[in-house]
Design a protein that fits this description.
single chain; 374 residues; mainly beta; Glucose Oxidase, domain 1; OB fold (Dihydrolipoamide Acetyltransferase, E2P); 3 domains; four-stranded antiparallel beta sheet; 30 strands; 9% helix
Amino acid sequence: MAQAYTPGLKVTPRIVHRARRVLPIAGEVLVNVGQTVQARDVVAQTFMPGDITPLNLANLLSLPPAEVPDCMLKKMSERIAIDEPLARSKGIFGMFKSEYKSTVAGVIEKVSGTTGQVIVRGEPLAVQVQAYLGGKVVEVLPGEGCIVEAEVSFIQGIFGIGGETHGPIRMACDQSDQELSADRIKADMKGALVVGGGRVSHEAINKARQGGVAAIITGGMDDQDLKSFLGYDLGVAITGSEKLGLTIIITEGFGDIAMAERTFNLLKSRQGSQAAVNGATQIRAGVMRPEVLVPWESAGSQDSTAQLPDGLLELGRLVRIIRDPYFGQIGEVSELPHEPSVLDSGSKARVLRVKFKSGEQVIVPRANVELIEG
């Protein structure tokens, strides 16, 4: 019998996860296979070429471009400091000389007698890659980085903004449907990963950023609040590079939506644990979801549902409905009819039956659900 698959988000109490940590260009790997690392440990580093600054000495010293090389006080590949003399004109009969002191520091990379320009290359920019996930190094990628492995509670969200950050999990709401309002953001949440329930308010976002909260994880968010937070309309883009001082992960979607109870209860059970989050999101080809990783300190058995193939629809598996009129509701797959059914629109589609916690059962197109993978 053919099997059915659908996209899904992972919500797993315990699973082995591997984080690939690599440099943007070749560099030095600082760890070895078998080494235990913490989330903030630097595992690899390199140096990017510094910025270049063109200096038009022909104009600055009122010289013909061809005379610039002979007026240089510094040679190619020599270092120059700010306010250090870089070039001096010969003047008239040795008098009325003009001198130029550099406004930038770096290395002389090029002197042109054609344009009269001098190119100064700034200091190399250090680039470091942290482990991100506390665990064990299981593979070293020479000149690139490493792979870190750990047993974690693993939660994927629908959407996020902001990059990688770390901190202890703090619950701000008592129930999965409570709004994350500003009064729930406390002064002692600085550096924490704050977990809400339903929609997070604009006021709560601002208070969290001002109070030094590392990240917010909650069920929903208003799209206008997102625009106000970013300062622009996001549109279709890859997120994660925003430098706003706060990472936000939405687990369910936009609007006044409660966090799934399974997700809320899992985060609540790990309150106080150190965790790593990344808000980077890409919806198109090469899908990338925001994630929450909460390492376990001791080895244990993985959640049995984690062994099921990714995206496999089976009876009893949890799904979230992603289209009206049942948008955001979560239930179990109770039936998978083999033959296509005629929808209200008159078109035919493969469907499934979903049973909600209340006992109500509805039939929806398979394209209108996403799997909540354990």
